[in-house]
Structure formats: structure tokens, C-alpha cells
Amino acid sequence: MATGTSRKIFVNLAVKDLARSVEFFTKLGFTFNQQFTDESATCMIVSDEAFVMLLVHGRFQDFTKKQIVDSTTHTEVLVALSAESREDVDAMVHTALANGGSPANDPQDHGFMYGWSFQDPDGHIWEVVWMNPAHVQG
């Protein structure tokens, strides 16, 4: 594969209640691709290149021979999302917490980078991060 080739990423997450998850992530501003949505799964659009497949446990199990972890007590993945500003980080976390999410970690301020995290209703941890563009370019 050539260096610099663009790839899409599809993160697959097991959820207990698909309708609850869709409602939660809709309130955070995400939309869903109806071509890949039925009663057992949906495709949440993060960007033109990034997607999250929310799959009810039975459907998720079709893709693995391993046991599905209880994401309320075990961490299987940390999903990190970029934000356009520190204020956008705070706004997304506040919205998540006001709509069924729960706290994960306290805000982390490193000057050039700021992040805060929450757990979705299934216990998956979402880290929302802003990085100072001047620092990244420099």
C-alpha cells in the first residue's frame, strides 16, 4: 500500500439498546447512514472517512468468536474524537452527560492539548480532544 493512502475506518461497538444509542448520539450531533441500518445495527457517521457501527450484542457476536465484554465494568476500547476548540470539547461532554452519558475522566489540560471524556449509555469511553493547531504544525 502506498504511503499516504486515505483509508476509511469503521469502529464496531456492541450496544444493548440500539434505539437508546441512536437517540443518545443524535443528541450529540451525529447522523446515521440508513443504507446500513436495520433493527440490529446502524452506521453512525463521524466524518467522510470515519464511522461507528453500533451493533446489538447478537449481531456483534456474528463477527467474533470471543466473549463480548461488559463495557460498564471493563474497557475494550477508547474512542477519541477531535474537536475544533476547547469550548467544543466542553459542549460535547456536557451534552453527553445531560443525555444519559456518565463521567469517565476529569478534563486534562496540557496547554497545547485539552481533552475530556465521557461514557456512553453502554459504558464505552469517548475522549473528546482539541489540539492547538499552531503546536501541531510546529
Walk me through what this model shows.
- This protein has two domains: 1-61, 2,3-Dihydroxybiphenyl 1,2-Dioxygenase, domain 1, CATH 3.10.180; 75-138, 2,3-Dihydroxybiphenyl 1,2-Dioxygenase, domain 1, CATH 3.10.180.10.
- It is 23% helix and 39% strand.
- The chain is built from four helices and eight strands; from the N terminus they run E-H-E-E-E-H-E-H-E-E-E-H.
- Strand 7 (113-119) and strand 8 (125-131) form a beta hairpin.
- The mean pLDDT is 94.
What is the element layout, followed by pairings?
Blueprint: E1 9-15, H1 18-27, E2 31-38, E3 41-45, E4 50-56, H2 57-60, E5 78-82, H3 86-98, E6 102-109, E7 113-119, E8 125-131, H4 133-137
Parallel strand pairs: 1-4, 5-8
Antiparallel strand pairs: 2-3, 3-4, 6-7, 7-8
In short:
The chain is built from 4 helices and 8 strands, in the order E-H-E-E-E-H-E-H-E-E-E-H.
Provide keyphrases for this structure.
138 residues; alpha/beta; 2,3-Dihydroxybiphenyl 1,2-Dioxygenase, domain 1; 2 domains; four-stranded mixed sheet; 8 strands
Query: If helices are DSSP runs of H or I spanning 4 or more residues, what is the number of helices?
Result: 4
Quickly give the structural class.
Answer: alpha/beta
CATH superfamily of the largest domain: 2,3-Dihydroxybiphenyl 1,2-Dioxygenase, domain 1
Helices and strands, in order, run as EHEEEHEHEEEH
| Mean pLDDT across residues | 94
CATH topology description of the largest domain: 2,3-Dihydroxybiphenyl 1,2-Dioxygenase, domain 1
Q: Which regions contain 5 or more consecutive residues with pLDDT less than 50?
A: none
C-alpha geometry: globular
Q: What is the CATH architecture annotation of the largest domain?
A: Roll
* Biggest beta sheet attributes: 4 strands, mixed
**What gyration radius follows from the Cα positions, in whole Å?**
16 Å
The CATH C-level class name of the largest domain: Alpha Beta
Taking the alpha carbons of the first and last residues, their distance comes to 28 Å
Number of domains: 2
Share of β-strand residues: 35-45%
Number of strand elements: 8
Spatial order of strands in the largest sheet: 1-4-3-2
